[in-house]
Amino acid sequence: MIETLRGGEYKVDSTAVSYILELKGITKEFSGIRVLDNVDFDLRKGEVHIIVGENGAGKSTLVKILTGVYSKDQGKIFINGKEVQIHNRNDATRNGIAIVFQEFSLIPTLSVAENIFVGHLPVSLKLGGLLRIVDWKTILDRSKHFLEDFGVNIDPMTKTRTLGIAVQQLVEILKALMLNAQILIMDEPTATLSKFEIEHLFHIIGELKKNGVSIIYISHRLNEINLIGDRVTVLKDGCRINTLKIAETSTKEIIHMMIGRNISDIYPKKENVKKREILKVENLSLDNQFRRISFQVHEGEILGITGLVGSGKTELANTLFGILRRTSGNVFVNDKKIDVKSPVRAISLGLGLLPEDRKQKGIILPLNIQENMSLPNLEQFMKFRIISLKKERRTVKKYMDVVHVRPNDPKKKVRFLSGGNQQKVVLSKWLCSQSKLFIFDEPTRGIDIGSKMEIYKLMNYLSQSGCGIVMISSEIPEIIGMCNRILVMRKGEITNMFHQEGATSDMILQASIGDSTQRSEYQDGRTNG
Questions:
Q1: 426 and 323 inside one domain
Q2: Which of 282, 311, 427, 445 gives 20 to 30 Å between its CA and that of 249?
Q3: Do residues 274 and 399 both lie within one domain?
């Protein structure tokens, strides 16, 4: 058993059994559909056990059973060799299980210290136990000690809303550890982090392992497996396909187990780019965000833009779509100078944006698929200001079939869809708008490898249909795999341009962090490719 000591240190009871957690024959059904089928899983002390699988494979359901959100229909759960029952969150906490969700549960108006101890504030008793007063000295001392242990130099009384994503995530982890968690579940922890923030998180994970904390790590980023994992379990269609030691497998083998296809099939082959220029950006600037941005996009081309967090990529996308107003510079669409004052104007010019945060900016979660897809296109369904529901449904169904939205039910609420299918809904509404120029901002963030491949095929379909695409991504492999040309942004400027044929991950990463030894075609003025 792992016991929390004052100051955040841990000690491990070496007499405990080999497996800290064992799941045997876990089965779960919803409305007669089996989403987990006789799944076995085990976790050793001080290891990182990674769970991978496509959306719908059963990862989330398994985790929710462990944390008491769902009750299992069949099977047994053992903690340190003893069978336990987990019916709710309190049962999970009592058994030393905690989870750090991708979407944080912090209270932004409270301080770091208050968030760490929320629901478990230590108190001192006064007047013979009649008066309970919050022990702020203990809260501040322990919070400060915890933060220092993990290399974060901030005041524990800092309001959480003022912190960056990486520090907020650490606060989530500290909340879990303060509850004496011996099993920590991390769900997509690196989805919104920069390269350097990810490195810091991995360092923290290493320290947790040394202190005996066991980690279940869920991620769609398969490149992380070799960096932090000890073992990996692959789930598919609710079944456990295999559990392997990381040192004895490969990314290629894992992908094949997940989707039944080879890694060489991930990126589709592209056709030759047409010469006609459909977008030209000339010395575009936005105060304090980016400056003197110039590039062209040709018919049938996928132009990649990459760079570190804070390089100005997303701000550029939002400016092109009229969400932000440029300070200076010009934009031309089909050789015509335009002024994109708003998203409405951008849509009328044939532009479509898949935003970085699809849940906050790309879809309206309480609405269904049909309502989301038709929202920017209501005029085409109207006659005498009355919406033809029959025409709306027919059009929506057409584009749902094109992009393979699942389930194929226009009345399904989008909040119940997987990340990949939510992204398809965002794309579908721009197909419905007859857009010819697409801006994809982090199009595969938080979706599984199978859904990524579908998004890539759809992008390839659009380019072959003569559309132009600006693909903004921090995932260097997909930038190289999908894009004809690649621009690298750093500190608000485009510093380098690469052609797909000669680009490597090392070259792009070095350009992103500012390796001055690289020769830049972009800075030499040769941007047309």
A1: no
A2: 445
A3: no
